[in-house]
Design a protein that fits this description.
Blueprint: E1 7-15, E2 18-27, E3 32-37, H1 46-54, E4 60-70, E5 78-81, H2 83-100, H3 108-111, E6 118-121, H4 132-198, H5 205-219, H6 222-239, H7 248-268, H8 272-292
Length: 296
């Protein structure tokens, strides 16, 4: 079972200081990249949060936001006004008004838009209000919710990938059926062309057969078909795994190899029916590439 790298989860638990809330958002990324946003009093737990999340995710960009909502009367952090900053804003606005002869006044509605004039003050004792065990419990709960969402999204991705694998496999079977007849047609066409060019001059049958054999070897796509089917089989095996390990990187590599084999088959096609099926295969491979980028 594969997992998507897109997910969201949240948790909320009661702590002595109030309510501890954790939000996790994950999107695709080549490696595991954790970005934690914590209150100042909990900043010391950032390394531990990264390690806890590594136990849940293999790849992806993880945004972790932790908030502490204090209960009334629990020594909650307050706000104070930065008068110096507010005064500077008022003076700058007046200077702007005078220089350009602008109307209007620097009233409360205008000043309240400058958030940096309000300073949040946190008591030094706040750090002891949340234990590491409480924080870990909240982070783990949010991570579990994200993992469940990523697994559900992975199931939908898997259905889509299997349908595309089936379409590619069908096209490869059709190409394999067309390939022998194409070689025979090209052999007959080449023999007839040489006879017309020779204009009655005797042509060494052995030499002609040798040249036709050389061209037939160049046009042969059996090896490419075998490799392509091998890539498909391995990709299906990865989808059928238990999901204990991330498979996104390996699937990405296989899709890249599928694209390479499709290009080679197309360059050797020299047949309208095969060329059309190669185009269809490349379209499916491109869709696979887009989907695989979001698989853990």
């Amino acid at each position: 079972m594969i997992r998507s790298m897109t997910g969201f989860g949240e948790s909320e638990i009661a702590v002595p200081a109030g309510r501890l809330r954790v939000e996790l958002r994950t999107v695709n990324h080549r490696y595991l990249n954790v970005n934690a946003r914590l209150p100042t009093a909990l900043a010391r737990w950032e390394p531990e949060i990264r390690e806890w999340l590594r136990g849940h995710f293999v790849r992806g960009h993880v945004n972790c936001t932790v908030r502490l909502e204090r209960e009334p009367g629990s020594g909650a952090a307050g706000l104070r006004l930065d008068l110096d900053q507010a005064t500077a804003y008022v003076e700058l606005l007046k200077e702007l008004q005078d220089r350009f002869a602008l109307g209007g006044e620097a009233d409360l509605a205008v000043l309240s838009r400058f958030s940096d004039i309000f300073i949040r003050e946190e008591p030094e004792s706040e750090a002891v209000d949340v234990s590491g065990e409480d924080l870990r419990r909240a982070v783990e709960a949010a991570a579990t919710a994200v993992s469940a969402m990523r697994a559900e999204e992975g199931r939908r991705l898997q259905v889509d990938l299997e349908e595309r694998f089936e379409a590619i496999g069908t096209a490869l079977d059709e190409i394999a059926e067309l390939a022998p007849a194409r070689l025979e047609a090209e052999r007959d066409r080449l023999r007839n062309a040489i006879q017309e060019l020779a204009e009655g001059v005797a042509v060494d049958p052995a030499r002609l057969a040798q040249e036709i054999a050389i061209l037939a070897e160049r046009w042969d796509i059996n090896e490419e078909l075998v490799r392509f089917r091998s890539h498909l089989a391995l990709a299906r095996d990865l989808l059928a795994g238990d999901g204990s390990e991330g498979v996104g990187k390996r699937l990405g590599f296989l899709v890249q190899e599928m694209h390479r084999e499709a290009n080679t088959i197309g360059s050797k096609a020299n047949h309208a029916g095969i060329a059309h099926r190669v185009v269809a295969i490349k379209e499916e491979v491109e869709r696979l590439r887009e989907q695989v980028e979001n698989i853990e």
